[in-house]
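[audit] Reproducing an earlier prediction to check determinism. Same input, same settings, fresh worker. If the tokens differ from the archived copy the diff job will pick it up downstream; this log only records the rerun itself.
[audit] input (421 residues):
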Amino acid sequence: MPDGVDAAVSFGGRIRTWTVRVLLATVVGLAAGVSAAVFLHAMDWATEAFATHRLLLFGLPVGGLAVGLVYHHVGGASAAGNNLILDEIHEPQAWIPRRMAVLVMVATVVTHLFGGSAGREGTGVQMAGSLADALARRLRITGLERRLMLVAAIGAGFAGVFGVPVAGVAFALEVQRIGRVRRLALVPAAIACAIADRTVLALGVTHTALPDLGRIDLGPALLAKVVAAGVAFGLMSLVFAEALHRTKALTNRLVAWPPLRPFLGGLLVIAATGLVGSRAYLGLSLPLIGLSVAGGAGVALGAFALKTVFTALTLGTGFYGGEVTPLFVVGATLGVTMAHVLDAPVALLAAVGLAAVFAGASNTPVASTLLGLELFGWHPTLGVVFALACGVSYVCSGSSTIYPSQQRRRWGFRHQAPAPA
């Protein structure tokens, strides 16, 4: 066959391949957006119910036991959560359970209805991943195309829950580290994230508004303070991730029967609430973020440590929900503390801490920088501050991560052994 015909056939094949990828990304984005909207409406209901009926907190152990029983008997591989999706991208082994989407949504709503300290991102990602894989199974899509769908689903779930489509694309590509998959997934992820975000808004979800910080007057003193704060944010990322992992490991070692773990965790959260004398660290704790970026009035200097403890007690004992929103709270409140220590603008370091602690704990500095800009304003000088803090936090957090299945490739020079003589 002449070279020109071969080229035409090859070009036509690429067009068909990318047409199919665009269509699949569109469906994945719609599924992620609809599921995220339903979930966020349910979360609003659960959060309002908990705030209105204070005695619901005492139902947390029973709610944990119920969720534990369901996952123990019918959850199967769904219990692995986000790590299952990452594992299937890295080394495909089996289909993601279709029941994961329903199980994780109900379990997360139960966690928040009774006041557990958890987030939302994990649920959005798991619902999107489960629905995307159900579509792949139905259409008998395997191999590379299935992996691209899962990457797009990760981004769409993240974007839909937080209303950050640009950061969603970067997160999907950065949280998994397979070079070829990452490159090919850029367009599908961008399409899925944009559609998921638009779908969520069209279905009446209103994301929490945060202030536009505007242009920042950069100078050597401020940059030095951002670097110092970035070190603290990175170390806090490490502490947060280790607190979750070690609490989970200790609970698994001490309590043999899985459904009993969240029951006991619920009792511990109730006891911690009584000891602290405040409910500010229960649920999403979004008011703490609002207070932090508004200047820090009313935020305790040790709020970041208390939120970490409450989240470790909740997620580490078997409740379901995400880690990202608690990380936002930890970062924002630590930013308030660091602003007082460094004599820096409180609102700025609170906003930077929100993104930078997430960067260190998830090993996603680029996505976290874009997240900060999407939430607080697209200003070049602000971008410099976010990038600097997220980069420093990422470096200082070491190899810690909230996603154990994440394949880490740290930036830097790879050591090569000298060639034999």
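[audit] rerun output stored. Observation attached for the diff report: Residues 409-421 have pLDDT under 50 and may be disordered.
[audit] end
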